[in-house]
Amino acid sequence: MIAPATRWRIACLGNAGTFLALAFLVSSWGVLPGERLIYETIVDWTSPTGVTIFKTIKYLGSWQFLLPATLLLLWLAPAEERRRWWLWAGVMVLAPIVEGVGKEIVGRPRPVGRAFGFPSGHVTAAATYFSLVAYLIGHRLKNRAIVLWIAVWVPVALVGIARIVQRAHWPADLLGGAALGLAFASAACWWHEGAKAMKDRNMKGSVVAASIFCVLAGSPAWAQQATPAEELEALKRMMKEVISQNEELQRRIRDLEAAMAKQEQATKEAAKEAAKELAREAPKEPAKAAATEPAKAAAVDPAKAAATEPARAKKGPLEKIQLGGAIEVEAGRRRDFKGVHTSDFTLTTAEFDFEADIVDWAKAELSLQWLSCRTPCDDPAADKITVNEALITLAKPSKFPLYLKAGRGVVPFGISTGTTVAAKLEETLTITGPLTVDVFEAKEDHILLGAKAYGFRAGVYVYDGTTKQLGAAYGGKRLEHYGATIGYGIQTDTLSFDAGFDFIDSVFDTDGLTGASDFLALQNRGKRGYISGLAGHARLGLWGFSLTGEYETAYDEARIILTRRNFHIQPQAWQVEVGYLTELFGIKPFAAFNYSETVDLLGTFPKRRLLGAVGSYLSDNIRVAAEYANEQDYSKTLRGTGRDSDAWTLRLTYEW
User: Fold this and answer.
1) 188-229 tens-digit pLDDT
2) Nearest residue to 656 via CA among 350, 231, 275
3) Which residues pair with 650 in a beta bridge?
4) Domains of the chain, residue spans
5) 98: exposed, middle or buried (C-beta count within 10 Å: 0-12, 13-18, 19+)?
6) What is the pTM of this model?
7) Superfamily covering domain 317-329+345-655
8) Is 572 helix (H, G, I), strand (E, B) or coil?
C-alpha cells in the first residue's frame, strides 16, 4: 500500500508538471485546437439568466468568499490539523501570488481585452481551497471521503464555466488554474502527512524542502478583469498615442535626413578646397613629399580617407581586456559555540578580475584572490594570492545556441554561480550566505557543453573531483566524474524568475564535504559506487521583492565510523530567503531574511542558520551592509555541542 505522503507527493509533482506543460503549450501556440469551439459553445449556450447566475457563482473563487471560508475551515478541521493552521493559511496566500506571476511569465491574453489570462486566478484559488476542504474534512468521513472529493470539485468546475461565460478566460486557462491549485493543496498535504509519519529528522528536511520547491515551481494575485467597455476605451487611447508618436517620429526622421544632406554637402566642398590647396603646393624635398603623400591621397579621395579611418580606430588586443575586482573590509563581534567572545576588524577580500574578448566568439575570464591570514598571522605562507577562477568560454549566441566552457570554476549544482564577489552579490543580499552554499558549492576543474535558447538552458559536464575508487579493478585516480543541469529563466522590467535542477555523480566532491575532516574516509569509496547528489532551486523577483528557495541532498546514505560509532548519513541542506531592494534619494537600500538548515552533517556544519541583514548600495559599485547571524549546533549525541552562537557584522564592499 502506498504511504499517504507518497500519494500526495505524486499528486503534487504530477499537477505541477501538468501546469508547466500547459504553460509551455499556450505560450508557444496561443489558442490551442478546440479551445475556441468550446469557448464559443459555452458563451452562445448561456442565456441572460444564466449569465446573471454565473456572475454570482464566480465569487466562490474570490477573496470575499475565501477569506471567511478559510477561517471557518480552520475552525472545523480536526485538532491535529488545526495545529498547523499556518500551513493551510500559507497555501491560500501563496497560490494567488504564484498565479499572478504565472500570468506575467506566460503572457497569454484573455479572449476579450489585453490583460493576461493564464492561469485563471479564480479557479486556482477555488481549486486550492476546496481541495483542502476535502482533505481536512474527509478524515471524519473515512470511507465516504471519495464522495466528498467529487462534491467539492463541482463548485470549482462551476467557477471555471462562470469565467468563460464572462469572456474572461480560455478553457486551458481553467485547466492550468485547476492544476496549479491542486498542486499547492497537494504540497500542503504532502508536508502534513510526512510530518505525521516521520520518525527522524531526515524526512522532515526532505518534506520541508520539497514542499517549498513545489510551491516555487509554479508561477503567481487575484485575477482582475476590466469590463469590455473599459478595454475598448483603453485600446482607443493607445491607438491615438501610437498614431501621434508615429507622426512625431516621421517628422524627426525628415529633419535628420535634411541635416545629414547638408553635412554631406559641406564635407564634399571642404574636401575639394583641400585638394586644390595641395595641388598648388609642390614638395620642396623628397622626404617632405613622401611624408605628405598620404595626406594628398586622402584629400583627393575623401571616400578612401573615410575607408581608412575605421582601420586606424580599430582596437588593439589590449583594449579588449576588461579589468575589475573588489575589496571588502568588515568589523565584527562574535560568540562561538564554546561561549568565547571575539571582535575584530579585517580585510576579508582582495580580488582582481580580468576578462578578455579578443574575438567575438570566445571569452576568457580570470579571477585572482588574496587569501587572508587573520592578524596576528602565525603562518606567513597562508597569506598569499591564488587563482580563484579561470574559465574559457566559446560561444556565439546570436548564431548558435551551443557553448563550451572549460577551466576552473563553480559547476552548476545548486544556486551558486561563482565564488567571485560579483557572483556572491547576485546570489544573496546577506553577508554570510546560506548553509546550502557552504556545504554543497563545488569549485572544480571542469569542461561543460551547454545550450541556451528561449529562456531554457541545459548542460552536461565532466570534472576532475577528489573522490576516487581504489582496488585491483580500479587502479589509480581517473577522470570519471560528471554532472548535468537543466533550467529556465525569464527577466522583464518588473519580473525575474529562474528555476533549475542539477545532478552531480559524487556529492562528496562538493567543497564543504571535501573539506570536512570527519568525512575524509568517504573520499575513497573503495569498490563501492559513488553517492550522487540532486539539487533544485527557484528564484522569483517582483517589484523589488525577492523570494529564493533551494534544496540539495545526497541521493543515498553513506556509512561512516566516528569515535567507534556507526553512522548512516545522507547529507542535506535547504534554504529560504526573502528580500526587498528599492531606490530612495539616489541610493538603493535593502533588507533580507534568510533561514537555512542541514541534515546528517554531525557537527561539521551548524544545524541551522538564521540571518537578518540591512544595508544600501551607495552607488552601483559601493555597498555597505550590517547583519545579525544566529546558528544552532547539532546535539551532543550527533557530535555537536547542543549550543548556539551569534555574530554581528558590518561590511563595506567596493567593486569595480
Assistant:
1) 888 887 776 654 444 444 444 444 444 444 433 333 333 444
2) 350
3) 331, 626
4) 4-225, 235-313, 317-329+345-655
5) buried
6) 0.56
7) Porin (2.40.160.10)
8) strand
